[in-house]
Specification:
By secondary structure, the protein is α+β, with helices and mostly antiparallel strands. The protein has 5 helices and 11 strands, in the order αβββαβββαβββαβαβ. The mean pLDDT is 94.
Length: 227
């Protein structure tokens, strides 16, 4: 099986195992890092294991082949088709301009606010701990665009949290930031990949221009356990 077919599971049992919260056949990141989790199999045992990790009010986002038959009491909070795209070729062009800044723990609140406004996917106060994050600030110092990395599996790193404030769309910030992150990933001998909602045409067109190709689709399933 390809390492990207069970990408969250392979991250949490491989390069990012140190971040994993584990119970039986379920794994998840700490919710403050990201809502992503994985089951060895989406069956009764898997959801029973996940129920030992989730606290009341929490949800877990799973990448599944299809919508599962949820055990009694479980709730599907959200589900949508998700495209997995992989960068083709062996190199990435250098960013055309270097008007970006490194983002770190001191920027966490601003990063979370931008993610909540633009909804690029699960994002928490500690998501920046997953790897490189860079951004663009406007003349007043406000963070108006950012991107970074999230999942790591052998040979691949996921680009994530690609977002731009609505007032600053069309300025090329997303492409510039992605080119820089792509170059860093390629510099480590790894391949950039990403996940995007299948109906996000604007984003997919950008990713295709940067050399990403559709590999497969998942069903993103955000689930909550019985109270």
């Amino acid at each position: 099986m390809h390492p990207l077919d069970l990408v969250i599971w392979n991250a949490l049992t491989g390069p990012q195992a140190g971040l994993a919260e584990s119970a039986g056949t379920a794994r998840r990141f700490p919710p403050a890092v990201t809502a992503l989790g994985a089951l060895a199999r989406p069956d009764e045992e898997g959801f029973s294991s996940l129920s030992r990790l989730q606290k009341p009010g929490e949800t877990t986002a799973l990448f599944l082949n299809e919508q599962p038959a949820l055990p009694a009491g479980w709730k599907m909070v959200q589900t949508t088709s998700l495209a997995q795209m992989v960068h083709e070729g062996t190199s990435a062009a250098t960013a055309a301009k270097n008007g970006f800044v490194a983002l770190g723990p001191g920027d966490a609140a601003e990063m979370l606010a931008l993610a909540q406004l633009t909804q690029p996917g699960p994002f928490g106060m500690r998501t920046g701990e997953l790897g490189d994050f860079i951004g663009v600030r406007d003349a007043s110092g406000k963070l108006v665009a950012m991107t970074g990395v999230r999942l790591h599996v052998p040979g691949f790193t996921e680009i994530s949290a690609v977002c731009t404030h609505p007032d600053h769309l069309g300025k090329g910030y997303a492409g510039t930031l992605m080119l820089e992150i792509m170059a860093r990933i390629r510099g480590r001998g790894e391949t950039p990949m990403l996940h995007v909602r299948s109906n996000n045409t604007r984003a997919i067109q950008l990713y295709e221009r940067l050399g990403f190709k559709l590999r497969r689709t998942f069903q993103l399933c955000v689930v909550a356990k019985p109270s």
